[in-house]
Amino acid sequence: MNDTLDLLSLVLTLRPAPTPGHPSPSGDSPDEKADEGREPQWMGRAAHALLLECVRQADPALAESLHAGTGLRPFTASGLMGSSPHYKLSPERSYHLRLTALTAPVTQALLAAFQAGPLRPGETLTLADVRFRVEAADWGESSDPNTRPPNAWAAATTYEALSAPWLLGRERPAPRLTLQFSSPTTFKSSGKHVPVPLPGWVFGSLLEKWNAFAPVALPPEARRFAEECLALTAYRLSTRMLPIKESGLRTGAVGQARYTALNPDRYWLSLMHLLADFAMFAGVGAGTTMGLGQCRRVKDEA
Q1: Is the pLDDT of residue 56 over 80?
Q2: 230-247 per-position pLDDT tens digit
Q3: Could you give the CA distance from residue 110 to residue 154 in angstroms, rounded to a whole number?
Q4: CATH of domain 7-157
Q5: How far apart are CA 216 and CA 163, in angstroms?
Q6: pTM of the predicted model, to two decimals?
Q7: Rounded to an integer, what distance in angstroms lies between the CA atom of residue 12 and that of residue 121?
Q8: What is the CATH number of domain 159-298?
Q9: Helices 60-68 and 44-58 sit at what angle, rounded to 10 degrees?
Q10: What is the spatial distance between Cα 156 and Cα 120, in angstroms, rounded to a whole number?
């Protein structure tokens, strides 16, 4: 286990486990049969609970601090990726769940859960009363890279390695960058949730998390640069509604957004690129510990 990693994006490959005494049917359409009935509309809260339980088994004191703490949390959890509330879960299909860590202690706890704990391939876990078998766990480093291609959402690194290309001037920042929002993304402003990924909100959210957990803070003026010198110049976005607890629905945006620099200042634009890379681990906006705001940088399309 690498004890120097700060940042982790762990992707689990899960398959619904047949109910004991009820073997998985064969030949059924993935959209017509499932061993545990219809999937709950959102598993973000269940994934949050799973992450805390994994941390508890490795480090009970850390888990208690994460559970009881207020403010920004050094982790995110996705919903069940590849599923739909309109169809039943199928034991004939695999799904994905992503857990991320923003500090070394949380990273080490999740790696321990993957290597010798409840996230180890072959183990069975429960999400919202649905049993799943862990088929694989990918964190960007594989002992046998020929077994399966790496998942684009899996990664592990340090703050130093992530920032070096941009802060040391090794990379020349392009004037455009594109982010993919794979789960509903929303921002809290003046007591309201707004599902629009405007530059100031997106990069301001990332800056806040970076400065909360990274060993070296970035200047707060970076938020102002995003607000005044980045423009949302292209997007393919749609809105999604999610149930939040039992109190109602929350609207978020999913899709891609392109941001273009109106002022190509190399230093400030480098910080925007760094924060865009950080989005893979930090998520964007509100509710990232419950499945919202799953985000990563993608190749900019001409």
Answers
A1: yes
A2: 999 999 999 998 877 666
A3: 13
A4: 3.30.70.1890
A5: 10
A6: 0.90
A7: 9
A8: 3.30.70.1900
A9: 140
A10: 17
